[in-house]
Amino acid sequence: MWRILVRNSFLISFFRLTLVLILFLMVGPATAGALTETDKSVRSIVSGIVSYTRWPSLTGQPKLCVYASSHYTHALSNEEGQNSGLPYTPVIVHNDREALAATCDAIYFGSESPAKQLELISQYQGRALLLISEQNPECAIGSAFCLIIDRDQVRFSVNLDALTRSGVRVSPDVLMLARNKQHG
Fold it and tell me: What backbone phi and psi angles, to 5 degrees, belong to 77?
């Protein structure tokens, strides 16, 4: 009797585990591709900044290198073949060496510190380079554009000194948007 009870308990547990795995495999890919409202806002702001930026000698779409440390890597890339009309070609990079090898036209920093951003910028000297950061709230050094993400609200600030040194030209309309409280 005890053996039958243990065997039935095991079979029931195994059946439940199998059912959970099947549901995860069916539902997981559907929800993995879904972008949150914050993801969409970040993607929209970055796409807008890139769209209204001009590089002196660039023909075609700029290459946006997105550090893998970003919370919005998926939203900023066209993973799973979903291009969605991005105004840039996304490249995911894991370190400075990869970013330098990719010859980026723009870089989106994740958790890299402003000092780390400056270190990479110095290696790009002589090239026009748009820099955007999601973890640089003061926006005093490093990137020209700094996203400020507070719960569901996404806005950005501009470091005019860094933008002047970047070698790119940005539409004054974008600079005016930095004064708004929220974008989306």
Answer: -105, 175
Going by pLDDT thresholds of 50, 70 and 90, the confidence category of residue 4 is low
CA angle, residues 39, 74, 124, in degrees to nearest 5 = 105
State phi, psi for 2 to the nearest 5 degrees: -60, -45
Question: How far is the C-alpha of 56 from the C-alpha of 149, rounded, in Å?
Answer: 31
**Collapsing DSSP states into helix, strand and coil, what is residue 42?**
helix
The 10s digit of each residue's pLDDT in 92-110 is 999 999 999 999 999 999 9
Coil, strand or helix: which one is 127? Answer: coil
HSE-CB for 93 with a 13 A CA cutoff: 26
| Rg value, the chain, Cα | 22
